[in-house]
Amino acid sequence: MAQAIVVRALGGPEVLNLEGVTLTEPGPGEVQIRQVAIGVNFIDVYFRTGLYKSATGLPFIPGKEGAGIITAIGDGVNGFAVGDRVAYASSDGAYSSERNVEASQIVKVPDEIPLETAAAMMLKGMTAQYLLNQTFKVGPETTLLFHAAAGGVGLIAGQWAKALGATVIGTAGSQDKIDLALAHGYDHVINYRTEDFASRVKQITGGKGVDVVYDSVGKDTYPASLDCIKPRGLWVSFGNSSGPVEGVNIGILAQKGSLFATRPTLFSYVATRPALEACANSLFDIVRSNKVRININQTYPLADAGQAHTDLEARKTSGTTLLLP
């Protein structure tokens, strides 16, 4: 019998309970995976609390990201075989020792990349890929601000942006996290707990501001993030770890300099098979080049998913967190 974290009621980390679950044979278009590692992401918290709604309702198995070995294949699946090493960032269900997943949502993992690394980077790494290469095309002329620089996406994005030639500014909440970000591509890292980050950004940029702000924090960094952006620059709100931004008056974009704003999600950028493969292959290429290192800084047994969420929400984590079945 497979083991999985089953959410039967919305709430705090205490609702994450390990249960035995019956796993059926994979259906048409599905593969069955024995999971090696599972990525933990802040989006998992949103689903656990009900900020985001699970497509299946209650109960559900949370988690979007994992990697493992194919153990069975359903009808109509082409291009995959039992024994293939695969990874995904897709629908709910990752917090489990074994699972069925749509073959259209998985990609093969190159032999040079460990499955633990793949599980640690699919959602976060493909998020960095689309943010830096598609939402705003970062290059040598770009100056950017990335909040939560020492987080899972932040550490990948800092290295990737530096590889693209950008001037990279970040924010973090402790000296340890500042040092970590500086070691991963950031030119400047601002302690948001002790400094006014908008003033520091203006100081760093000689009063010009940045071309783009990448903001996964939300409530605590809005509207100050807008004060960091040069006229006609872009605010990218791709998460809300401190709470959602509410009551936005679109006129503020005019007041702050004819700014642009977007609220993207990874799943819109990988909605087709060609888009998924292109995004994943771009990520695999940058990791294999050693220009981006994937930091697995915390691991927990699957049964301790609640503790992993507690630490994540308390901002005690850095880099990537994995659950191990």
Automatic annotation (TrEMBL):
InterPro entries hit by this protein: ADH-like_C (IPR013149), ADH-like_N (IPR013154), ER (IPR020843), GroES-like_sf (IPR011032), NAD(P)-bd_dom_sf (IPR036291), QOR-like (IPR047618)
Keywords: NADP, Oxidoreductase
Broad class of enzyme this protein falls into: oxidoreductase
Residues covered by the Enoyl reductase (ER) domain: 11-323
EC number(s) stated in the UniProt entry for this protein: 1.6.5.5
Pfam families: ADH_N (PF08240), ADH_zinc_N (PF00107)
A molecular function GO annotation: quinone reductase (NADPH) activity
Highest taxon in the source lineage: Bacteria
SMART domains registered for this protein in UniProt: PKS_ER
CDD domains named among the record's database cross-references: QOR2 (cd05286)
The protein's name: NADPH2:quinone reductase
Species annotation: Pararhizobium capsulatum DSM 1112
Lineage: Bacteria, Pseudomonadati, Pseudomonadota, Alphaproteobacteria, Hyphomicrobiales
